[in-house]
Every structure is written in C-alpha cells, then in structure tokens.
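**Paired protein data**
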Amino acid sequence: MKTNLYIVNEIEPLDINLKVKDAQVLFNELTYTHFPVLKDKTYLGCISEADIRCFDTDKTLDTYQYALEGFFARKDDNWLDILEAFAQNNSNIIPVLDDNNQYLGLFELRDIMNLFNETPFLSEPGNILIVEKGILDYSFSEISQIVESNNAKLLGLFISNMENDVAQITVKINDSDINNIVQTFRRYSYNIVSKHHEDTFLTNLKERSQYLEKYLNI
C-alpha cells in the first residue's frame, strides 16, 4: 500500500507569524485536532486545538512556539507506523516530511483507517475470537498452531488488551468450525472472552446447571 498517495496538500499549514485569532478561525472551519506550523517553509511542529483556545488572540503563534508538538511521518512510512503515530499523539492529522525534512502535506486519520479496512483482517468474511492468557504463557506460534490444526486459516491476530499480567488476543479466522477451535484453545488453557452461539461447552454447562437446580429444588 503506497501511503504517499494519501498525502493531502490542499490545506495550507499555519505560518509561525500568524495571529492566534486567525488560527482559531481555521480550527473553527475544519475538524482537525492539530495544525502544522511552518517558518520559512520549515516544519516546526503542530499546534493543538486545545492549546490554541487558551492563548491570547492578539499575539502570534511565535509567542507560543514552546507549545508546538514535533510529531511527523515520512511519505513512504508503513501505514501501521502512521496509524501508531495517530494513536500516540491523539491526533487526526500527521504532517508528512520528505527525507530533507521539507513539508509535503499531511495524512488524515480517516484515509489511513480506510487502508486498514481494506486488509483481509476486516474485509474477508470470517469469525472473530478473543482469547486471553498470562503474558508469559501465550505465544503467537501456539495460537496459529491451534487454529491451523483445526483446518482453519488465520486471517490476522493482535494483542487487543494487556492488564494485570494477562494478555487479550483478538484472532480472526476464516469461516470454519468455530466450536472445535474454541475447545482446543480451552485445552491449551486459554480463556475464551468472546461469546459464540456454536460453543457447545457453554451450552452443556448451562444444561447441567439447570439439572442441578432442578435436583436441589426437589
């Protein structure tokens, strides 16, 4: 995927000598969380909407240069690295620089998210399975082996949560017998977080609890 095809350069960056009140107008017109700021075509950093609302409207951005955030991406960066930059900087735009650090434009979050939507993980039909295990106990190779040993194909997996020494892994597999896969994960001591109608283990457990309740009420 060529991310450089998604560089937006129709939006002019802010000049460091621009007045704060004029910058606020641009934030009012657009839905950006940040705006790139340049000085003589050199990228200095991004100013956030949260900060710009607190500044003296009659002063210039140069007065608040200390508040600029210096994040950026390269035009040929991998889309996953770009997506990570969006998350780390809590922004919906990422300025793009060339190898000489010249400003080229910006990436918009929605465009990069569309790239994610085109991956087989999201676009291909299949089943989503969420499992969890101790951080020191799980392995991607083991998860792959469990899926493939049940004649299923792995479409993707990632760590979706990590808390209290427990890793939660989201797995997508092609359409297959999800029940056998779920039972195999249990045999390997994985806890099944997601709910599945085909999960006979839960069905049997429910039936047994109903029998037990009926017996206790006799």
Q: What stands out?
A: The first strand starts at residue 14 and ends at 15. The chain has a mean pLDDT of 88. The chain is about 35% helix and 25% strand.
